[in-house]
Amino acid sequence: MDLLEDLESLQFERGIEEEDRSWLYLQHRCHGLMIKGCAHATFFCKLLHNLSKLLQEKQASRCSSTESFANAPDDDNELKVGIIGGGHLGKQLARVLLQLVPIPAERLRISTRRPEALDEFQKLEVQCVYDNSHLVGWANLVFLCCLPSQLPSICTEIQNSFRKACIVYSFVSAVPIPRLKNLLNHTNILRAQYQCVEGFAHIPGANKEIIAALQDPVILQATCPSDPTGGVILNIKWLDGVFYAALNVCTAKAAHLWQALQLVNELFPASCFKKCRKDGPPCPKLQLGHFLNESYIENLPPKSPLPWFDLTIVQLRDTPFSDNLLTHPALQDHVTHLYCNSFGISLPEEQHYLAPPDSPSE
Fold it and tell me: Which DSSP string corresponds to 261-308?
C-alpha cells in the first residue's frame, strides 16, 4: 500500500522543478525495468523448479536403476536460491520469488552487509546473514543484486566456493558477461540485457507495486521475452542462456543426451503442442539439432552425456537454438506459450512476438 497515494503535497513529483519534469519518465522506466527483471527471474526459477520436480520423479521411478542421474540425494534435486544484496532490488526479488514461484522460505537465503534490515524476511524464517561464501556454496542458483562497485570484492570472496553446476544470475547491468566470467572464474552465468525503447513514455505497470504488477495478465503479457511492445526489450540471447542452463542442470545429474532432451520437452505444457494441430500437422518437439550442430550429433553415441555448455559463450555467440528461434515461428510460439503458461496466462493465437536479432548485445 502506498501511504502517500492521496497526499499530493508529499508526492515525489511535487519536489521537482518545472524545467526538470521532462525527466520524470526515467522513474517509470526504472520501475518498468524492475518489473521485467523480476518477471524474467521468476520465470527462470519456475523453470528450474519444475525441472527439479521432474528429476525427483525420475529418481523415484528409477530408484533401483543403475542410471546415475537417479542416484542424486533428494535434497540436491531441490531448487535452492541465494540472493547477494539486500537493497531495493534484492528485497523486491525475494518477495516475488517467495510469493509467485513460490520458493519455500527454507530454500531461500539472503546475504547482505545489513541482515538486521531484513526483519520482514527473518519473520518468514528466511535465513538472512552476511556470508557470501557460505551462501554460494549452499545454493544452486545465486542472484547478484549488488552495486557494480561492490562486485569485484564480492567475486574475490566467492569465486572459490562455487560448485560447477551453480548458476549465477546477474542483475549488475554495468558489468558485461566477459568481465563477470573473469571476476568469478565461472562459466555458468546468466545475465539479462535490456534496452529501453527510445521515446516510449508508457511502461505497463509503472504505477503498481511489483507483486501486483506480476499478477496482472496485461502487464505479464508485456513482460514476455519476445514482446517488444512493453517499452523495454530483452535481448533474445537471454532465452539461449535459459535453455542451455536447463540442459546443464540435466548434465549435472548425469542424464544422457536423450534423457536431457526428454526432460526439457516435458517442461512444455501439453496444450502448447495441441495448438499446433488445429490448422495442420503437429509440429516437432525440441530436437538435439535445436541445441547442437548436426555434424557434432552424428558422432555422439546414444547414451553419451551432453557437453557442458559455457553459458557466457552461449550468450555472446550465435547458437543452433538462437538460429532456430529466429527462423522458426513454431519454436517462437512454443517458448512464448511456455512463458505465459508458467504465470497462468494465455496469449491470443495471433499475438506472438520475437525481439529483432539486433537487440542489445555486449
Answer: HHHHHHTS-HHHHHHHTSSSSPPP---GGGTS-HHHHHT--TTPBPPP
The pLDDT, as a whole number, for residue 230 is: 61
**Helix 25-61 and helix 88-100: axis angle, to 10°?**
40
Question: Which neighbouring-strand residues pair with 128?
Answer: 110
The answer to whether the beta carbons of residues 349 and 330 sit under 8 Å apart is no
Pairwise CA distance, residues 79 & 141, whole Å: 7
What's the CA gap between 141 and 97, in Å, rounded?
12
User: What residue ranges define each of the domains in the chain, with the CATH number in brackets?
Assistant: 25-55+77-235 (3.40.50.720), 238-343 (no CATH)
In 3-state terms, what secondary structure has residue 116? helix
Q: pLDDT per residue over 77-110, tens digit each?
A: 789 999 999 999 999 999 999 999 999 999 999 9
Contact indicator for 236, 322 with CB cutoff of 8 Å? yes
Query: Is 319:264 a contact under the CB 8 Å cutoff?
Result: no
| DSSP character string of 56-100 | HHHHHHTTT---GGGGS-HHHHS--EEEE--SHHHHHHHHHHHHH
Q: Number of C-alpha atoms within 13 angstroms, CB side, residue 2?
A: 13
Cell of 294: 548436426
Give residue-wise pLDDT tens across range 135-174: 999 999 999 999 999 999 999 999 999 899 999 999 998 8
Provide the grid cell at 355.
525481439
Q: Name the nearest CA neighbour of 40 among 343, 323, 345.
A: 343
* CA 112 – CA 98 distance, rounded (Å): 18
Q: Where are the alpha helices (DSSP H) in 62-213?
A: 74-77, 88-100, 119-122, 132-138, 151-158, 177-184, 210-213
**For range 291-319, the mean pLDDT:** 90
Q: Coil, helix or strand for 165?
A: coil
